[in-house]
Amino acid sequence: MTADRTFDALIVGAGMVGAAAACLLARCGFSVAILEAHEPQAFDSAAAVGLRVSAFSPGAQAILTEAGAWRQIEAQRHCPYRRMHVEDRDESVVIAFSAPEFGLERLGTIIENPLVQWSLWQTLQAMGGVEIICPDQLETLEYVDSEPVVRLVSGRSIQCRLLVGADGANSQVRKMLGIDQDHWEYGQQGIVSVIETDRPNPGIAWQRFMEGGPLAFLPLQDGTSSMVWSRPEAEAQRLLELDDDIFCAELEQAAGGTIEPWPGPIRACGPRAAFPLTMRLSHYYAASRAVLIGDAAHVVHPLAGQGVNLGLLDAAGLAEVLLAARSDQADISSEKTLRKFERWRRSEAEVMARGIHHLRGLFMPETLAPLRRLGLGLVARSWIAKEAFIKRAAGQNSNAPALARGVALTDLLR
Ligand SMILES: Cc1cc2nc3c(=O)[nH]c(=O)nc-3n(C[C@H](O)[C@H](O)[C@H](O)COP(=O)(O)OP(=O)(O)OC[C@H]3O[C@@H](n4cnc5c(N)ncnc54)[C@H](O)[C@@H]3O)c2cc1C
Question: N or C: which end of the chain has fewer CB within 10 A?
Answer without folding.
Answer: C
